[in-house]
Every structure is written in structure tokens, then in C-alpha cells.
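REQUEST FORM: STRUCTURE PREDICTION
Request ID: SP-0412
Submitted by: Lab K.M.
Chain count: 1
Length (residues): 406
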Amino acid sequence: MSETPPSASPASELAQRVRRFVDEFILPAEPLLAAEDSAARALTRALSQQARDASVFGNFYPLRYGGRLASLTDYIEVAEQEGRSEYAPGILGADATLDAYMLERHAGPSIRARFFLPLVQGNAVSSYAMSEPDSIGSIPATMNCRAELGDGNWHIDGRKWFICRSQLADFATVVARTGEGPVAQALSMIVVPTGAPGFEVLRPLSLLGRWQGQAELAFKGVQVPYDHVLGQPGQGIALMQERLGLGRLLRSAHWLGQAQRCFELMCGRVHSPKGQLARLAGKQLVRARIYRVYRAIATARSLVLDAAHKFDTGIGNSIEVNLAKLAASDAVSEASDSAIQIMGAEGLSDWMPLAGIYRNARTTHILDGADDALISTIGRQLLDATTPDTAFDPRYPSRRLSRAAE
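STATUS: Completed
RESULT:
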């Protein structure tokens, strides 16, 4: 007796619609989008409007501002489909999800009206300015960008670099030093319009020879009103931790989408006439690659969903988030490398997406937290959580960690 398949959930139905949109409209446009020129930007805007018309834009924005899913756990399935193309998160508004989340939770009325509402309506581009050329990204105490309060305004001076979307952004959330003493009370997040006098894009910065919208910025006496601070002055570290946790999960889900696309391309080649001619399906090393890539994706997906569920339920998840980020990074790297190996020289060509995914995969081991730093942090956290006479539950490894330890 056959079983009736369960009906698709709202998240699954949305994921299917997103996949159809990405496959039908974005994947064929990738060669044009890769140009990063005025024509590519115009095409991005046109596709974004098309996505809004198709109701697949801003899928994890706050519900009352057009979002379609309330839980991160549900959104992960959709985010995977958004991640099938490296250009899709920008076109579908997913790149703005984290800024929308932070502004909704921590922005005052003037910031919400001037920046938040245009952002969720698809009429503004956001960026996040944290990394600096003369500081260590994983050590916030080394940041030098300063914001001094005077005459009711923040006066900002400093440099930032490797800032995503900064050349197109309408505003940037800037991490700046606003006080002395312990770093936990010395940093703040301040929203800065990119048209403010003293804001300057110094130069674009390529990643592995590709322009991906990152740049170095200078703030030379930039002034913004006091109420442009997120939360309260001195809350920068707490807001950075909040932002990192969600941001790493959103990125990880998108990387899973790229990894899954590589897996599909691998299997497609094995089953193709060329693959049959080469008898790829009968080669043990090919089978081993298929297995390893599938295992890497399945493992990373489970870790991402576990961390997302704990995010939704308010359970400490710092270890789980970092594990998920590392696993998703490994998955897309394993998948792109194996797909290129099976494709051969064709996989290295410009007419295949694998070369771009491969380069992007390497950057995932640095961006959003370098592997070595995250591995060291996880090791320290696990040792803190397993001290003698401590009841350690491996299902909830972050539960007993203090905020300072995280």
C-alpha cells in the first residue's frame, strides 16, 4: 500500500518558487552579472524588481515589512535556493537581511524612517564597515576608527577595508571606538550615509583576482547626528556578537546552495554522453568524490539547521554557529573542487560557473571569521564547557558558556 506524500510546507513551496526564479532568470544571466559594470548593475536592478513582482524578494525580512517566514529554521531551506548563484542573494534582497534584522531591533525612529524602510522596500543598499587595514579582525580591541561626540554629532575618523557592497551602498553601519577602557564598553555601531561629507571610497579591492564589490573606505571628519547610533553607545561588542551569529548562519545556508549546485553538475556530467563515454559511473574515485561531497553537504546542512533551531528558541548556540560555518565552508570547497576535477579543463573555463564558485569557496575560509580563529575559539569554548565537575551535554555544548566566553 503506497503512502500519500505529505503536502509541501509554506517554506518548501517558497523554496521551490525561489529555485525556479534563480534557475530561469539568474543563472542564465551570470556571465553578464560577472562583468561588475554599469550594464551588470542595471541588470541587477531589473532582476530585483522582477523578484519583487514574483514575491520572492526579502524572504526573511521582518514579517510586517514584507517577510514571508518567521523562523530561521524554515528560512534555511529557502536560503539554500537563494545561494545557488553567488549573485542571487543580492538580487533577491537576501544580502540585506542581516542589516534589516539589526536595524529593526536596535535603530531609533529617525534611522528606521531614513534607512530601514527604504532597505526593506528594496530602495536602498546597505554595508557593514568593521575590518580595518591596521587592526586584527578577530581582535576588536585593535580597532582604531574613532567617533567623538561633540555638538550633538558623532565626528568619525578612520579607515575600513574589504567592505562588501560599499561602492553601491546608500549607508554603512560603522563600528567605531567611542570610549576608553575595556573594549566591551568602548565600541559602538553608528549608521553613516555614504553621501556624508568626508566619506570616501579609496579603492576597490579584489578577492583572488575578482571584483566582488569590496572596497577600502575613509572617514575624514564625517559627522552624523547622535541618534544614528544603534542601541546605546558602548554596546558595539554585544551587537557584533549578535550580528555574527545570525550572519554566519545566513552565509552558510547560501554556501550550501552553491555546494548543492556543484553536486548536481557533477552528477549531471557522470550521467551525460561524455560521462558515459568515459565510463565515469564505474570509476571508484568518481564514486568516492560523489560520496564525500554528498556527506559534506548533508553534515553541514544538519549543523546549520541545529544552530538555526537554537537561534529560534533562544538557546545559546555560539559553538554550533561556528561549527556550521566551518562545515558549510568545507562543503562548498569540497564540492567545487570535486566538480572541477570531474569536469576536467571544461570546469576551469569561463563558460562554466565552477571557476567562480571555486574562488568564492576559498574566500569563505577567511571571510566571516577565519578558519584558524574559529577552530581555536571552539576548542577553548569546549574546554570551558567541560571543566571538571561540570555537567556537559553534547547536544547543547554552548548552554553553560558565559557571555564573556562567547
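NOTES: The chain has 13 helices and seven strands.
Reviewed by: T.R.
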